Amino acid sequence: MGDRPRIKNEAQYDALRDQGNSKEKSARIANSPNAGKRGGEASNYEDRTKAELYEQAKALEIEGRSKLKKKDELISALRNH
């Protein structure tokens, strides 16, 4: 483990890798601002504003996010990332 960059939430990273996710995707999710939140503490996408969803998409570096004009398009992109 000494040769990979520091991961904020190691357990989440390992679980994501075990599920077959790439190293890059697993690290991005495990290092996200909500990585330490558990038990439904993170707010639902539907409860967030379009601006908040866009910022989350930006933080996750979702390609094509500037073309997503509707809230439900951003939600779909975040869920399928």
From TrEMBL:
This is Rho termination factor. Residues 1-27 have a biased composition (Basic and acidic residues). Residues 1-47 are annotated as: Disordered. It comes from Formosa undariae. Pfam families: DUF7218. The lineage of its organism: Bacteria, Pseudomonadati, Bacteroidota, Flavobacteriia, Flavobacteriales.
